[in-house]
Amino acid sequence: MTSTAPRLKTALLAEIPSLRAFAISLTGSMDRADDLVQDTLMKAWAAADSFQDGTSLRAWLFTIMRNTFFSQHRKRRREVQDVDGEAASRLVSHPEQFGHLDLADFRAALAELPVDQREVLMLVGASGFSYEEAAEICNCAIGTIKSRLNRARQRLMQNLKVNSVDEYGPDLATADAGATSRRSAFI
Asked: Under CATH, what is the fold of the domain 1-76?
């Protein structure tokens, strides 16, 4: 492992942004996501000898993360914390800009998805994995991935009360202002 350690370290560090995005989608919490990424990297480093050259390091890491998340999820499922949401309501900070509001709406709608649908949406939609790679990570058939992805997209649109792509994003005034500034930048 000593001769490949620097290469593995560099490769692991390069995957941190993707791992963090996937972890946030799974946990719904920045702090828990950071902990999950750290646990994943520690497990990957400890099991570096089991990684097979020529295979996808990214898929291997996402599989480790997914398995770690579900192990932790099973443990936490039996725990009851902040049942009435009082502590969580004190931690909320309301966004000041429209983009923050849209992102908050999106995160809330994403959090309402079942874990398996949210997971596939993040793997294929956000992280750019192919259906085949996502199926390997999730240990299921490609058809299952496609079905989960379709249900996730439909449910997400329903949760956001969006009927088409044109309905989501900046309002007309904001879009017009952005178009004007882009035009003036090219004049």
From this structure: Rna Polymerase Sigma Factor; Chain: A (1.10.1740)
